[in-house]
Amino acid sequence: MTDPRNSSPRTIADFQATLPSGEAISLADRLGKVVLVVNTASKCGFTPQYEGLEALWRKYRERGFEVIAFPCNQFGKQEPGSSDEIAQFCEVNFGLSFPLMGKVEVNGESADPLFDWLKAQATGLLGSKAIKWNFTKFLIDRKGQVVRRYAPTDKPASLEKDIEKLL
Predict the structure, then answer these.
(1) Does residue 4 fall inside a structural domain?
(2) What's the domain count of the chain?
(3) What range does the record give for the signal peptide (predicted)?
(4) Which of 8, 97, 149, 164 is the most buried (most CB within 10 A)?
C-alpha cells in the first residue's frame, strides 16, 4: 500500500485493516471521509463510550464521517473474546453499526502498523507515543492526515466540535 518511492506511510490510505473474518481490507476508500479510529475493549470502564461513538456515527455518517473500532486486549486483558463474541456483545449492548475490525495490538513489537503511524503522527501527553489505555481516539481529516489524538477519558460527544470543523 505504501508508495514505493517513499517508504514512509503518508495517509490512512497507506494501510490495511483486518475484518473480524480475517479478510484484509484497504483503508484507501476512507480518503475523502473524516475518520475516527479507536482502540476498544468490551470489559473496560470506558466501554459505555461505544454508545457515544455510535451516536456520532449515526449523526454524521451522511456527511462523510466514519468510526472504525479496533478491539485490543493489551490493557488489563479487557478484550478476551473472539471476534464473533466481541461483535455480538457490541451489537446486543450498544446497537453498534459502525465498522468493528479484528483484534489488534496497539503497542509493542506486534503493534498494528496503522497504530504505529497514528502514534507517530499525534503523540500523547508530554510527547508520549505509547497508547496508555483503551478508547484512545485519533481523528483523521478527509485527506487522510491525523488531526488530533484524544485520551480515553475524552467522551465521544466532546469531539463533535472538531468533527464539525472537518466536515
Answers:
(1) no
(2) 1
(3) none
(4) 149
User: What is the distance between the alpha carbons of residues 137 and 149, in angstroms, rounded to a whole number?
Assistant: 6
In contact, 39 and 83? CB cutoff 8 Å: no
Interatomic CA distance for residues 4 and 24, integer angstroms: 20
Evaluate whether 54 touches 39 at the Cβ level (below 8 Å).
Answer: no
Report field, pTM of the whole predicted structure over 0.90: yes
Active site residues: 44
Grid coordinates belonging to 130: 505509547
- The residue to which cell 467522551 is assigned: 155
CATH code where residue 28 lies: 3.40.30.10
Q: How far apart are CA 123 and CA 90, in angstroms?
A: 28
Angle at 133 between CA 127 and CA 136, to 5 degrees: 70
Q: Which domain holds residue 132?
A: 12-166
Per-residue pLDDT tens over the stretch 138-167: 999 999 999 999 999 999 999 999 999 999
> The C-alpha cell of 52 is what?
457515544
